[in-house]
Amino acid sequence: MHTTIDEIGRSGARLGASVAALSDADLRAPCALPGWTRGHVVAHVARSVDAYLWLLALARTGAEPAPRQGADAITRAVQDGAGRPAAELTADLGSRLARLAEECVAMPADAWDTLVPALAGWLHPAWYTLHRAWREFETHHVDLDVGYRTADWPAEYVAWALDDTAAALRAREFPVARIEAVDLGRAWTLSPTGPQVSGPGHAVLGWLSGRLPDTALAAASADRLLPTPPSWPMPPSPAWT
Fold first, then answer.
1. Does residue 227 sit in helix, strand or coil?
2. Are 89 and 43 in contact (CB under 8 A)?
3. What is the C-alpha separation between 181 and 191, in angstroms, rounded?
4. Would the pTM of this model clear 0.85, i.e. be above it?
5. Pick from 23, 24, 229, 231: most CB atoms within 10 A?
6. Nearest of 111, 141, 184, 99 to residue 15 by alpha carbon
């Protein structure tokens, strides 16, 4: 647990430093996500951390800390926040990251296994909230389009995210037989049939997460055509009940 918390702290610090270097004009510019500016990304991450803080407080106390915001309210908050000045967006994100670090320290050891509900309705242990935050920071740091690339993702993050994604794809019968992260020395069997895909771990995860095309991957198939990965991230599998 402490290792994951440390990784999240470093990931958030990298993201926060990139955001702090952006001007008002930079934040109004488009990002790598269609229809969004960099300001949208920063506001989205800050509001996502609010959601994770809510889940950790629920696990720690056994009671809802406040009425939970629904998807529509969160969308409005992101839209409203995207146009704020750079100093305000940076401070907002920084305060959320600091609160997350405080909540991790305050969490009783036995509370990490408490099941909490994702907004979509599926349950997961409170400790999985940390992995969701880690994925949020690393993925959206790339989405900012400020020079942080999938190749900059830490190997520890890529290995965990591929483990998580492969299990979810296997449960959904994604028609790829095998994926291999050649630099990590890791491979995952997904389906009895379909192409075999290999490449650097970050490139495999970049493709599966919709952040990279499949051109950097090697595919052992008759026509080299690869299926389109489903919307990512997916609920974990096997699910907790």
1. coil
2. yes
3. 17
4. yes
5. 229
6. 141
